[in-house]
Amino acid sequence: MDKKRAWFIAILFLSGLCITLYPFVSNLIAQSNASRAIAEYDEQIAQMDQEDIDAAREAAMKYNEQLSNAVTLSIDQEDESISYLDLIDVGESIGFIDIPKIDVYLPIYNGTSDEVLQKGVGHLEQSSYPIGGENTHSVLTGHRGLPSAVLFTDLDKLEVGDLFYLHVLDEILAYRVDQVKIVLPEEIDDLKIVPGEDHCTLVTCHPYAINTHRMLVRGIRTEYIPEEEEEQHVTYSELQSGTLTKRIVDVWPWLLVSLAIMAVVETGIFLLIVKRKNQKKESEEKPKKKIKNKERPQRKSRRKDNKD
After folding, report:
1. Cis peptide leading into 207, omega within 30 of 0?
2. 288 within some domain
């Protein structure tokens, strides 16, 4: 029994350790996949001719112009419209986003399907393509609190004045946060195009682990200064500490539920083992009792024979 108990304790410990380390390890894998997607995107852009890049940018600009003039578009113009999927064919992703303050460096994909949001940031269809320009407002969405990846988990740490960057085609677009709002999912007024301005809004679920609302972090286009971006990365690296502890805190709802389920399951297994062991012990003791009961009458009969 002591040996089985030792095995049970070892299995319980290893299971808890695996569950605790899963968010950290899975996030490292997710970051590796994201870095590979970004590297592939950069390589694809580097191999493109400048004419192809300019043609892709022009197609995206026409698409954005159609969005800004959507109210005045007529049926006659429908055949000249540009398909969302045909804008920029440079591989799987359409660019990548860099948010130095919260150490986010993720590829941007077309659409907002669950498959897309499990591995990176999704571009909301019917919002401006993320190439900037007047009368544009691109919307990028990301999950928060996934056990397998950080993604937009720390988006609530962004404040007015913070910077984030979009790397699309051969250009880097800088946006300075000018508004942070919490709204209901159906409230979309803050995602509309503001005439004459260039906006990009980052969207994620809120509150953390409850997800009844949406957090909108809007940025307004500003001048890109390479030294400023590098300075933010250095500042973040100096402040970053306790990565494993922070990751565990990030996914505490998932971790708590997983550990509780594991404890219930393994306790049930342990009780089942104990019950079966007791049943086996009882079944082994019953034949012995029967044998003893049979032997008693024989002894009495022998005593009578001796008296005679």
Report:
1. yes
2. no
CA dist 175 and 138 (Å) reads: 11
> What CATH number is attached to the domain comprising 235?
2.40.260.10
- Interatomic CA distance for residues 176 and 224, integer angstroms: 10
CA torsion angle 241 243 245 248 (round to 10): 150
Domain count, the chain: 1
Q: What is the pLDDT of residue 258?
A: 66
Write down the residue that tokens 């590829």 correspond to.
107
**Domain-located, residue 150:** yes
The domain of 138 spans 2-77+91-257
Position 231 in a domain = yes
Query: Hey, CA dihedral for 34, 219, 182, 186, is it positive or negative?
Result: negative
pLDDT at 228: 82
Average pLDDT over residues 147-160: 88
Give the per-residue pLDDT at 147.
Answer: 72
The percentage of the chain sitting over the pLDDT mark of 70, rounded to a whole number, equals 70
- Mean of per-residue pLDDT scores for the chain: 79
Q: What's the pLDDT score for residue 139?
A: 96
Q: How many CB atoms lie within 10 A of CB 223?
A: 7
- Domain-embedded: residue 86: no
Interstrand relation of 121-123 and 104-110 (parallel, antiparallel or unpaired): parallel
- pLDDT-based confidence at residue 113 (cuts at 50, 70, 90): very high
Amino acid at 225: I
